[in-house]
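idk why but the lab printer keeps eating my pages so im just putting this in chat instead. protein + pyridoxal-5'-phosphate:
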Amino acid sequence: MSIFEEPIYSAFEYLNSLLNLEKKRLFESINLIASENLPSKAVLEAVGSVFSVKYAEGYPGNRYYGGCEFVDRVETQAIELAKKLFDMEFANVQPHSGAQANQAVFESILKDGDKILSLSLDHGGHLTHGHKVNFSGKRYNVVFYPLDPKTYLIDLNLVEEIAKKEKPRLIIAGASAYSREIDFDAFRDIADSVGAYLLADVAHYAGLIVAGIYPSPKRAHFVTSTTHKTLRGPRGGIILSQSSFANSINRAVFPFLQGGPHMNSILAKAVCFEICQTTEFKQYAEKVVLNAEELARHLILNDLNVITGGTSSHMFLVDVVSIGLTGIEAQSLLEEAGIYVNKNTIPYDKNPPAVCSGIRIGTPMITSLGLEVSHMAQVAEFIVKVLKERQAPDNLREEVRQFCIQNFKKIF
Ligand SMILES: *Cc1c(COP(=O)(O)O)cnc(C)c1O
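predcted complex ->
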């Protein structure tokens, strides 16, 4: 056999050892990172399929290359499924990531210096919603709406007040670290009252939305999402909108921002969307939320401060300053015990973003690995032992590993 025919495991020992170590890490630790998930085997196979060969600049029926018969059918299928799942008129499935999906929407309707109103990163928003280190903060004039200082919820009256005063051209509803429901319809009404466009960035909530258990963003002018978070698809992005924006969105994605689409990822997106239509997926999404609610409940029973007192989604924030830690300390203590979370700012955080006062906890990955509501007391106990009782995390590592080996589904 030549090296062009051998799989990685026989050809390159070092790289293969890393692959095996990463598999071990994934399946022998408790991954509570809210933005990560385990895709199905079918999705991973599609990503590694021969569709990664094809150059297909352009769109179905209008490509710059020959040989696009089957990629055209794959992309058309992905588009049709996306439209159906989100109940919207138009879809572009080519964005390589959520960040590029957002950038394409901005490019399609904004000029440099136009005003955007969004939730700031430190209150749960995303870098691409206008943070000063990101293109969005450099090219546009950004104003932020804060969360209510007492409830830490979105205050729609305040959003409306700021919108009326600032007259933004675009309002963004969506977040990376907000655990409660976002009323996208109310945001649309506010946008209409000031003549703004509404972008619903549902990167985190998309899986719950297509399962019908989180508010629908379908009245927004634009919806962007990643496909690799709660949707359980390949890494990538999508854009949905009303059909009147089809041409400007398509031109913003290609040729403005991207070159050839990753057809292997688009096949995987189509596979993911097929799976999203099944009752099994709906049950999965429901379980994700039930697990998050139950995990939050057990942490609260152990006197941990869960922001907003619970969750209505797949994630929540825990204030760790109240137990004498910073976010970064909590993250690394948990990591030593084989539990992954990420440090996160909490609303009105007094610590700098590199330190943070909280951690974000999510259940998409552990639910994909088969954990049920009945397992959440044990997961909470591990967290409490590390963060509150300050048991030496390396002593707990083996216990966590055994818990994973005993309770996770053997998928790969
Ligand atoms: C994750 C996320 C993105 C960006 O996705 P990438 O694929 O990492 O570029 C955009 N918006 C929100 C709200 C997100 O949570």
